[in-house]
Q: What sequence folds into this?
């Protein structure tokens, strides 16, 4: 099974289309000013062309910082209910909202969502702040992983200081049973991300990064020059997952670049699906 672990569902068309103001809000928040609603069947066809079998849907709750969100837990739960073979739904919660724990527990119990997406740069929190501990403890209690935005963010209104990979070390150290994905390989701090994965086996990353050039060239530089050309294939092969950052980037070109990397086919199989299942289920 091939899995894309990094997909934003805020533009997926479903029952009850977005109003013009809701669509503009999501475009402005994400910096995707020309992105329109995307029909689910069109997205499925894109996945078929890329030979991708399943998507992790990552909403974003920005209640206290932006007054809304980009995809809600309710929307994601409905998408998963209607398309269980295609979608795996994550929750999101704004850590600053007073009812954050209630929202998260409902997401894990009633809505049956499979993990948590947090964006420190957009939600304006430091991941090693002890105020975050109750959220982490709840994820451990329900055996749910967290996918964090890590590294630079190209979205409007973001500050990179919140998401430097080193800000996640204390969390990984203090919560060894918490599975953590530092998305985007923590770019540009890819070496720091590799260091953390080497030290902490509960840390994963994904390949949802493309900031210069094209996917093939960017991966060649970031994953073959900025870090050692064999680091992933020999040491980190069980902790890297495929992610496209769709709709910001093009999933077809991203996955093609991964398939063309000079690494073992068995490592590609891990990156393209097997590691995602381990991250999701904790080795089950």
A:
């Amino acid at each position: 099974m091939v899995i894309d672990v990094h997909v934003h569902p805020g533009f997926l068309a479903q029952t009850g289309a977005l109003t013009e103001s809701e669509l503009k809000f999501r475009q402005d928040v994400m910096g995707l000013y020309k992105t329109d609603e995307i029909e689910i069947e069109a997205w499925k066809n894109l996945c078929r062309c890329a030979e991708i079998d399943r998507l992790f849907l990552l909403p974003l709750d920005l209640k206290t910082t932006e007054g809304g969100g980009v995809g809600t837990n309710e929307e994601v739960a409905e998408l998963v209910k209607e398309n269980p073979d295609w979608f795996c739904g994550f929750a999101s919660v704004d850590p600053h909202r007073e009812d954050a724990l209630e929202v998260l527990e409902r997401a894990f119990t009633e809505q049956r969502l499979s993990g948590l997406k947090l964006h420190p740069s957009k939600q304006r929190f430091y991941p090693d702040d002890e105020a975050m501990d109750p959220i982490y403890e709840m994820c451990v209690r329900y055996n749910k992983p967290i996918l964090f935005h890590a590294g630079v963010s190209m979205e409007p209104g973001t500050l990179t200081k919140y998401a430097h990979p080193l800000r996640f070390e204390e969390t990984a150290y203090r919560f060894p049973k918490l599975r953590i994905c530092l998305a985007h390989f923590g770019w540009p701090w890819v070496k720091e991300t590799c260091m953390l994965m080497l030290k902490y086996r509960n840390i994963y990353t994904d390949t949802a990064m493309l900031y210069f050039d094209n996917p093939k060239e960017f991966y060649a530089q970031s994953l073959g020059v900025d870090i050692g050309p064999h680091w992933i294939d020999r040491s980190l092969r069980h902790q890297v997952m495929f992610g496209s950052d769709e709709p910001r980037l093009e999933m077809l070109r991203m996955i093609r670049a991964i398939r063309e990397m000079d690494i073992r086919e068995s490592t590609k199989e891990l990156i393209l699906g097997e590691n995602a299942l381990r991250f999701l289920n904790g080795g089950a």
Notes: The chain has a mean pLDDT of 94. The CA atoms of residues 23 and 36 lie 8 Å apart.
